[in-house]
Amino acid sequence: MKMRLDASNVAIYLATLLCAILLAWPPATQAEQKEIFDGYEVHYNAFNSTFLSPEVAKQYGIIRSKSLALLNVSVLKLPDQSGGTPLPVAASVKGTITNNVQQQREIDFTRITEGQAVYYLGQFQFSENDLLVFNLDATPDGSTRPLKLRFSQSFFAQ
Questions:
Q1: Residues sharing a CB contact under 8 Å with residue 155, sequence separation 6 or more, in sequence order
Q2: Does residue 74 belong to any structural domain of this protein?
Q3: What pLDDT shows up at residue 84?
Q4: Shortest CA distance to 96 belongs to which of 136, 125, 141?
Q5: Could you say which of 70, 103, 112, 145 is the most buried, measured as most Cβ atoms within 10 Å of its Cβ?
Q6: Is residue 10 domain-resident?
Q7: How much is the average pLDDT of 149-157?
Q8: Is residue 35 situated within a structural domain?
Q9: In angstroms, rounded to a whole number, what is the distance separating the alpha carbons of residues 98 and 2?
Q10: Mean pLDDT of 34-56
Q11: Residue 91 sits in which domain range?
Q12: How would you class 93 by CB atoms within 10 Å of its CB: exposed for 0-12, middle for 13-18, buried for 19 or more?
């Protein structure tokens, strides 16, 4: 069976392709979340563990589940006034989560180093439609002052 290539078939094909690309685009990469402190930037991103491919999850020992999510945190040292680019730095990262009924849990973070990149992953459980409040302390190596940030995010099983 030969398919005719006319304008309506091309439009349907392109619309299908666009939908597939948008569905495959990970929401975790759609918005940058960061806080700027005196001399540092702290980037953070929380997302459902099912957004990771099975291969990536296995590589880092992460359990993929509809009720498990990850928090990714990285700390960058800002350049001085002479310019340059922010550089990743090691830090002590601690955090807690508070749910809708004020239950609080600690997040255990694992340090990941890939080349020059340094980031911290913490996995946590959530219930459907949970609004979680995150409190984080990131203390860059060589500093005694923690960089404190707080944010909230809702989670849904995917």
A1: 46, 48, 69, 126, 128, 129, 130, 132
A2: yes
A3: 84
A4: 136
A5: 70
A6: no
A7: 93
A8: yes
A9: 59
A10: 95
A11: 27-155
A12: buried
Residue 27 has pLDDT above 50, yes or no: no
pLDDT, position 4: 53
Structure tokens belonging to residue 117: 């990149």
User: What sign does the CA torsion over 32, 37, 42, 48 have?
Assistant: negative
| Rounded-to-integer distance, Cα 82 and Cα 94, Å | 32
Burial of 30 (0-12, 13-18, 19+ CB in 10 A): exposed
Query: 21 lies in a domain?
Result: no
Q: Which amino acid is at 141?
A: D
Checking if the pLDDT of 24 tops 50, the result is: no
Rounded to the nearest angstrom, the gap between the alpha carbon of residue 25 and the centroid of all alpha carbons in its chain is: 14
- Please, which residues bridge with residue 113 across strands? 118
For the chain, the domain total comes to 1
65 contacts 77 by C-beta, under 8 angstroms: no
Q: How many residues does the chain have?
A: 158
Helices (H), the chain: 7-24, 54-60
Task: Determine the Cα–Cα distance for residues 67 and 73; give it in Å rounded to an integer.
Answer: 20
Residue that wins the pLDDT comparison between 30 and 76? 76
* Residue 123, domain CATH: 2.60.40.3340
